[in-house]
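ENTRY TYPE: protein
WANTED: fold as tokens:
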Amino acid sequence: MLDDDVAAFVSTIGERAANECLEHLPMFVQQNKPLKFANTLFRFFSNLQGLLKPSHQERAAHLPNF
């Protein structure tokens, strides 16, 4: 049951994120700021991952190294 709730939550958040991206993408493109758009997406999904994984070490292990 909890897994279904988490899956529904992630699905809803993913749908909202996709809608937000589509809504704001023209602004980022018009301003020629694709890197800012990519950083915004990265922060969003990092924060979402943080909600799903409580441990900071576990959360950090899944983030890409730059």
In short: The radius of gyration is 14 Å. The chain has one domain: 2-61. Residues 42 and 65 are 12 Å apart (CA to CA). Residues 2-61 form one domain.
